[in-house]
């Protein structure tokens, strides 16, 4: 191994990325170490990822030390009979995303707030916004109307692009 580097960070979130059959880890590094991170790791991309290792620095607290269930790709996506993202209906996809804090933030920061002057702060408001954005009374109607289906696909595409944008906080 060449150019080895270690940076202390806090693991603050784990998300299932079902279509890639992996999990996404969110690490917070103190702002004072931002330049160190960039110097050590560069700017990773999906095409040129940076191989890293992950290690726990402290033992878990007693209250958090309870055994956890085994996590496999099947359990993360809902079991052996779960559907891939593209097999789900638009309404099912909306039901999943409207509960995701990052999707709610995307709606509030990028779509509802900027375009419509609305605040989306929780899953209920996200659901209401998605229904209004797609022009349906129920998420189950998204696939039944061509315009609603296209609006949903565009919203998901914009969300995925927003998720890929690097966020630099210095």
Spell out the blueprint of helices and strands.
Layout: E1 10-17, E2 22-28, H1 34-41, H2 73-76, H3 90-97, H4 101-116, H5 123-134, H6 146-164
Antiparallel strand pairs: 1-2
Features:
elongated; mainly alpha; about 170 residues; 2 domains
Characterization of the model:
The two termini are 28 Å apart. With 170 residues, the protein is mainly alpha-helical. The protein has a two-stranded antiparallel sheet with strand order 1-2. The protein has two domains: 60 residues, no CATH class; 80 residues, no CATH class. It is elongated. 39% of the residues lie in helices and 9% in strands.
Short description:
The protein has 170 residues and is mainly alpha-helical. The chain is 39% helix and 9% strand.
């Amino acid at each position: 191994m060449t150019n080895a580097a270690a940076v202390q960070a806090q693991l603050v979130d784990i998300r299932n990325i079902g279509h890639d059959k992996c999990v996404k880890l969110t690490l917070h590094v103190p702002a004072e170490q931002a330049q160190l991170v960039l110097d050590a790791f560069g700017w990773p991309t999906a095409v040129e990822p940076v191989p890293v290792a992950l290690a726990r620095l402290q033992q878990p607290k007693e209250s958090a030390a309870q055994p956890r269930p085994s996590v496999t790709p099947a359990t993360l996506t809902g079991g052996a009979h779960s559907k891939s993202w593209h097999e789900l209906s638009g309404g099912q996809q909306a039901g999943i995303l409207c509960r995701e804090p990052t999707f709610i933030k995307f709606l509030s920061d990028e779509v509802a707030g900027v375009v419509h002057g609305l605040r989306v702060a929780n899953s209920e408001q996200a659901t209401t916004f998605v229904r209004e954005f797609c022009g349906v009374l129920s998420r189950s109607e998204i696939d039944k109307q061509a315009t609603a289906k296209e609006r949903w696909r565009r919203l998901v595409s914009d969300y995925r692009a927003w998720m890929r944008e690097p966020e630099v906080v210095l």
